[in-house]
Amino acid sequence: MKRIYLDHAATTPLDPEVIAHMSALMAEVTGNPSSIHAEGRRARTVIEEARARVARLLNASIGEIFFTSGGTESSNMVLKTAHRDRGIRRFISSPTEHHCVLHTLQRLGREPDTEVLWLQTDAHGSPDLSQLETLLAHSPTPTLVSLMHANNETGALLDLERAGRICRAHGALFHSDTVQTMGYFPFDLEALPIDMMTGSGHKFYGPKGCGFVYIRGGTLDQPLMDGGSQERNMRAGTENVYGISGLALALSLAYEHLESRQSQTRAVRAHLLQRLTEEFPEITVHSPSPDHCHYKVLNVSFPPSPRSEFLVMNLDISGISVSGGSACSSGTEKGSHVLEAIGMEADRKAVRFSFSHKNTIAEADRVIDALIKAFKKD
User: Fold this and answer.
1) Residues of the chain above pLDDT 90, percent
2) Looking at the predicted structure, is the pLDDT value of residue 121 above 50?
3) pTM (whole model) above 0.90
4) 51, 318, 329, 378: least buried by Cβ within 10 Å?
5) In this predicted model, what pLDDT tens digit does every residue of 49-69 receive, in sequence order?
């Protein structure tokens, strides 16, 4: 039987159209984009066409889009250069952020005269924006707020508009890790009160190892890595020409088919959730209601038992790929800092299902059958 892949929050397969596009570029575009000869100019044109496409899709200026190796580099770039060059000595975030933000802020917090404050979160991992407003209102220290748009484990969605307005009202910079939502929700960056945001191609059917950061004009002006003048002096190193172009095409396809992809993904997620609650009334749903959750993520936990201990492995043996938490750090399953932060009992077994428009109702039913089999007594 064909395997069922339900770990799209970890990564997505390359779109066939993107594969064909990148393959053609690899054969045709051979120059270094920093070279002035014809081959170099051709490579430079490919990059700038991709930049223009991404900027147009997000309603941003082309001068505000910088290509990177992915979301982790992008967030490191934003946070570390703000501290180094903008004099930011106060950061506000939440304990349920992705490790690329969490670990970076923990490191910065060890620097002299630097303060990192963590917002309280609700049972789904959403940060308390009322507390954010209080913290910003009671300190004149230059501050950067970093809050992810959708939690990568529970799917909890942040009200970006509200968070941005709060930051603007108090003169704080606002950065959001939008890696999980880029290509799944529309963004109007001219209107949205946000200063910096990040995207990663492999989350929306583009290539791995290629991402971008949006930096509103004038917010940051120094690179994280030195050694070259690429990306308008903001990122040293020869550009990943093929990955950049593939990312731009993948993002374009994601928005071109946004409504149909949303509809299919929502339907499969809703069906699986209904079947789960019917067949396993003892589960706890850690994802919020659909209006406040990323439609591709569903996180539930099962009560402790010998059969739940190896649940993710048993599903894998049954041909079903899911996650027991975040898959970004290593290939081994380990405890989730997000689920710990929201107070999930340590002995429960969490499973994150993350969906694609290519998943089907029939696949969801196969998952239920596999779970019933996994918990069935001999």
Assistant:
1) 88
2) yes
3) yes
4) 378
5) 999 999 999 999 999 999 999
On whether both 171 and 247 belong to a single domain, the answer is yes
Residue 286 has pLDDT above 90, yes or no: yes
Question: What number of helices (H) and strands (E) belong to the chain?
Answer: 12, 12
Q: Are residues 201 and 287 in the same domain?
A: no
Where residue 155 sits, what CATH number does that domain have?
A: 3.40.640.10
pLDDT(306) > 60: yes
156-174 per-position pLDDT tens digit: 999 999 999 999 999 999 9
Residue 83: name the closest of 125, 61, 54, 111 by CA. Answer: 111
**How many angstroms from the chain centroid is the CA of residue 217?**
23
Q: Which residues are catalytic?
A: 328
Cα torsion at 351, 358, 155, 317 (round to 10°)? 10
Question: Of 12, 26, 25, 48, which Cα lies nearest the Cα of 254?
Answer: 12
d(CA 318, CA 229): 50
Same domain flag for 154 and 53: yes
What is the edge-to-edge ordering of all strands in the sheet holding 173-177?
A: 65-68, 211-215, 196-200, 173-177, 143-146, 90-93, 115-118
Residues 232 and 83 placed together within one structural domain of the fold:
yes
Secondary structure (3-state) at 177: strand
* Identity of residue 58: L
Claim to verify: residue 308 and residue 225 sit in the same structural domain: no
- Residue-wise pLDDT for 172-203, tens only, equals 999 999 999 999 999 999 999 999 999 999 99
Same domain, 220 and 316: no
Q: Which residues, in sequence order, are CB contacts of 340 under 8 Å at separation 6+? A: 346
